[in-house]
Write a structure and sequence with these properties.
- Helix content is about 80%, strand content about 0%.
- The radius of gyration is 18 Å and the shape is globular.
- It has about 230 residues and is mostly helical.
- The termini are far apart.
């Protein structure tokens, strides 16, 4: 009974399934590889990025089908108080950015690190296919991540702070697991988590998924466009 007070078990199961689908979403890249009989060993960086775009689109379609009703309701609610919602969301977002900046500076000064390995990986992809990455990392990626890390978590966890902390910390962890080349690199979990916590907080306060989707798209798109320019 105590578990039910803090967790919606049915939605927790959905969270776990969708999280694993998100984590292993690269398997969707094999759909066009098999259809077009591609040789994996000879794929160019541009083709790999297109395959990455395909896997993102495939996962996005799945999530939109699952959450189509909830998204329609949230969109209607947001339209009624759009300016107030965006004003509040911007404040929380700026707090998250402040947390990112401070933690990045501390890591750079204390450990002589030059940035997260995940950022360098994304930068290389932007160099290879800038405008495809603007779509993938700037728009599609944020929508997917917000539906996974915010929507599924908010539905599963009834407790405000259990949702916010779990969502933010796992969001931060997923940006360093599998990409960090050393132990110090895992410290970049902190700046990513700072942003994740702000996204989770704004969604909880508004009881709506769109604030974090909008802010995340703005955040990523600006970073990609700055890299392109």
């Amino acid at each position: 009974m105590k578990l039910n007070k803090y967790i919606n078990v049915k939605n927790l199961i959905k969270l776990i399934i969708l999280f694993f689908l998100f984590y292993f979403s690269k398997i969707f890249q094999y759909i066009p590889i098999i259809i077009f009989n591609m040789n994996i060993k000879t794929l160019t960086p541009e083709i790999k990025i297109l395959l990455n775009l395909f896997s993102h689109l495939f996962l996005l379609v799945i999530l939109l089908i699952i959450y189509r009703k909830d998204l329609k309701e949230d969109f209607k609610k947001m339209k009624k108080n759009i300016f107030k919602t965006l004003d509040n969301s911007l404040k929380y977002y700026l707090l998250g950015i402040l947390g990112m900046i401070v933690s990045n500076i501390l890591i750079a000064v204390l450990f002589k690190e030059n940035g997260a390995d995940n950022e360098r990986l994304v930068q290389n992809m932007i160099t290879s296919a800038p405008y495809i990455m603007l779509i993938t990392a700037g728009i599609i990626g944020p929508i997917i991540e917000e539906l996974i890390f915010r929507k599924t978590f908010m539905d599963a966890f009834k407790s405000k702070w259990l949702f916010i902390l779990t969502s933010g910390f796992i969001f931060g962890s997923m940006h360093v697991i599998g990409t960090s080349s050393n132990l110090i690199g895992y410290l970049y979990f902190i700046p990513y988590a700072s942003l994740g916590l702000s996204f989770a907080y704004m969604d909880y306060e508004e009881n709506n998924i769109f604030p974090s989707i909008i802010m995340h798209i703005i955040h990523n798109s600006l970073l990609v466009m700055i890299s392109i320019l």
